[in-house]
């Protein structure tokens, strides 16, 4: 097990692919040997962003996306064929980067976290842990994000206190148990495939 505390002062900020806003890149991975770290070389990305006005989502062919509201409420994603309901915070929705989506804000601006991965390169999961207890983590990379306040977790016999400003990156060679001791954390999980 390898753990790294990712500090907010080291996060990068970049424009959305469609230029409609700014996201905070918490952690990502790109194809080894890529000359540029861009959307074409992206394997996965965990990021947060405010959504302050209704508008279209970026078109991201070949990317699978998971999203969760962590601040505010009332977000709905609308496509020509379905609606993704994120009105309640800490609800995970899954959609593809090819899906034409326009946001609706029913109660003002929201803050979301996104976990994106290149289809066929990684399998991803995104879950909120709100009640103290255990959660099995498979081998892979996991990002433990304190959505608000301080989240206290135990992993491999070690205790970690994660403030809202930071994220704990956990790289597991084999499955392990994460225990939420107190607070609320969001766990993004990535398993590279192929």
Automatic annotation (TrEMBL):
<protein>
    <submittedName>
        <fullName>HutD family protein</fullName>
    </submittedName>
</protein>
<dbReference type="Pfam" id="PF05962">
    <property type="entry name" value="HutD"/>
</dbReference>
<dbReference type="InterPro" id="IPR011051">
    <property type="entry name" value="RmlC_Cupin_sf"/>
</dbReference>
<dbReference type="InterPro" id="IPR014710">
    <property type="entry name" value="RmlC-like_jellyroll"/>
</dbReference>
<dbReference type="InterPro" id="IPR010282">
    <property type="entry name" value="Uncharacterised_HutD/Ves"/>
</dbReference>
């Amino acid at each position: 097990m390898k753990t790294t505390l990712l500090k907010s002062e080291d996060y990068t900020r970049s424009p959305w692919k469609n230029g409609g806003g700014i996201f905070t890149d918490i952690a990502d991975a790109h194809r080894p040997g890529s000359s540029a770290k861009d959307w074409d070389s992206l394997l996965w990305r965990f990021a947060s962003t405010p959504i302050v006005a209704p508008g279209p989502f970026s078109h991201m062919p070949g990317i699978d996306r998971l999203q969760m509201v962590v601040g505010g409420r009332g977000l709905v994603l609308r496509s020509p064929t379905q609606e993704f309901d994120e009105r309640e915070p800490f609800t995970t929705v899954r959609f593809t980067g090819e899906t034409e989506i326009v946001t609706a804000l029913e109660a003002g601006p929201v803050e979301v976290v996104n976990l994106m991965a290149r289809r066929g390169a990684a399998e991803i999961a995104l879950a909120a842990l709100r009640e103290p207890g255990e959660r099995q983590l498979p081998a892979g990379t996991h990002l433990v994000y304190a959505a608000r306040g301080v989240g206290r977790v135990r992993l491999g016999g070690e205790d970690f206190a994660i403030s809202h400003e930071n994220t704990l990156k956990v790289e597991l060679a084999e499955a392990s148990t994460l225990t939420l001791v107190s607070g609320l954390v969001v766990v993004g999980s990535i398993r590279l495939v192929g």
